[in-house]
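Technical annex, item 7. During the second reporting period the consortium partners agreed on a shared format for inverse folding records so that results from different sites could be compared directly. Each record opens with the tokenized structure and is followed by the designed sequence. A conforming record, contributed by the partner at site C, is shown below for reference.
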């Protein structure tokens, strides 16, 4: 659908076209008209689907029609799970508000930045607050923010917030905002708990479920390569040398392993950095900027980069260590093939994680062909795994397994 088929103001339409968007994404086509009709929404949307603009544009359109007198009051509150996503959403508001005649004041409230400065910005008056829950609650508890004039409450990537013990925090926020408001709830997945929370927050919501998972999977060339645990680093170097990938995002299980491997790759002449939650806010910001500007080719990261990073042209995502959950798998690989582009996602399968990957495949309804790369073929067998490795969490020995073991011992 073309943007000018939507009931958006001419000022917004002209900014959208200057920004280079031509057609709406699927989620924008469905969500924008409903927000303009002032409906509450529960939307299932993947990162990379264009969901940010799907709420920013209609909110700006409605906001632009309001009369504002005196000091700006907070009309829009967006909660996001990470600092990076907060900054991205805030930037999207600013970019699209440029042509609107009234000046829109946007404030980002995130941990790691100076609390005093943030409170000062809020007190000076602002229209839009984009925040991570923890920092917002700090400021609510200090009674330094007035949210009583709020019109729009948006939860972005809500499923990720649930992981962080979000329910109690949410109650504090709900107590601080008016009961009458428009609620927009976005999440990539809806486990039962999430649906309950979504229904608690929204009022007669319409549900928007986009079959984006299919779209994302279609654009991503998913591969699985079998390799021994100790050969993964050499295999990665080999793959990188023999490919034309531009930006490579490599997911690691821990902050320490991310730091270590990045240092090792730098030693071998690769342009690599490590990204994780122990970096301070500036370090995070600069690392992402450098990766965006291609000053870094390979970014090793923990799952912190799995959500919300708005970097368009990552050509390859590597699961050096597998993600813990299926959700994380979907989010990680969704870092590539964004906004209709194509990308590759490779998972390294070792003796140790094969069962876990099969579970991810089952839940994602995919079945990949397991490859091996010449010179890095998987060696050893299941027996080696049984001897050397702890049992996979949650996998009990079946009666058949026990019987087989007993038979082996008596042979
Ligand atoms: P999001 O899912 O909101 O993180 O957006 C993913 C990427 O798609 C961002 O880089 C957006 O700038 C881009 N994008 C969003 N909407 C459109 C559109 N209609 N046409 C082209 N790119 C878009």
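Designed sequence (site C submission):
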């Amino acid at each position: 659908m073309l943007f000018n088929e939507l009931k958006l103001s001419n000022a917004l339409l002209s900014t959208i076209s200057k920004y280079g968007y031509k057609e709406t994404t699927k989620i924008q086509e469905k969500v924008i008209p409903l927000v303009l009709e002032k409906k509450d929404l529960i939307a299932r949307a993947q990162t990379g689907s264009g969901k940010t603009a799907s709420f920013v544009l209609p909110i700006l359109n409605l906001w632009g029609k309001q009369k504002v007198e005196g000091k700006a009051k907070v009309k829009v509150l967006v909660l996001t799970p990470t600092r990076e996503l907060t900054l991205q959403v805030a930037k999207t508001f600013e970019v699209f508000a440029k042509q609107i005649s009234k000046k829109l004041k946007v404030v980002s409230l995130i941990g790691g930045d100076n609390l005093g400065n943030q409170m000062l910005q809020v007190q000076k008056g602002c229209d839009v607050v984009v925040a991570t829950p923890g920092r917002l609650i700090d400021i609510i508890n200090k009674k330094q923010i007035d949210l009583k004039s709020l019109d729009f409450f948006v939860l972005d990537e809500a499923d990720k917030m649930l992981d962080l013990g979000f329910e109690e925090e949410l109650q504090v926020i709900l107590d601080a905002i008016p009961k009458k408001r428009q609620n927009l709830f976005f999440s990539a997945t809806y486990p039962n708990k999430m649906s309950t929370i979504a229904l608690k927050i929204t009022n007669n919501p319409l549900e928007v479920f986009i079959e984006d998972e299919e779209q994302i999977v279609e654009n991503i060339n998913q591969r699985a390569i079998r390799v021994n645990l100790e050969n993964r680093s050499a295999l990665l170097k080999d793959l990188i040398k023999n490919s034309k990938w531009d930006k490579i995002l490599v997911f690691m299980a821990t902050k320490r392993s991310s730091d270590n491997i990045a240092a090792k790759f730098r030693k071998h002449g690769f342009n690599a950095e490590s990204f994780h939650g122990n970096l301070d806010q500036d370090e995070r910001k600069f690392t992402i900027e450098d990766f965006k500007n291609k000053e870094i080719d390979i970014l090793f990261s923990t799952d912190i980069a799995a959500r919300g990073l708005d970097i368009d042209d990552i050509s390859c995502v590597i699961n050096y260590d597998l993600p813990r959950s299926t959700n994380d798998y979907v989010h990680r690989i969704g870092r590539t093939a964004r906004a209709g582009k194509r990308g590759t996602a490779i998972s390294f399968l070792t003796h140790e994680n094969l069962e876990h990957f099969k579970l991810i495949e089952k839940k994602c309804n995919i079945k990949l062909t397991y490859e091996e790369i010449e010179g890095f073929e998987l060696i050893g067998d299941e027996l080696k795994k049984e001897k050397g490795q702890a049992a996979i969490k949650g996998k009990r020995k079946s009666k058949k397994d026990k019987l087989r073991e007993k038979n082996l011992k008596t042979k």
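The pocket of adenosine monophosphate is lined by residues 21, 24-25, 28, 47-53, 310, 312, 338-339 (CB under 6 Å). DSSP finds 17 helices and 14 strands in the chain. All partners now use this format for quarterly exchanges.
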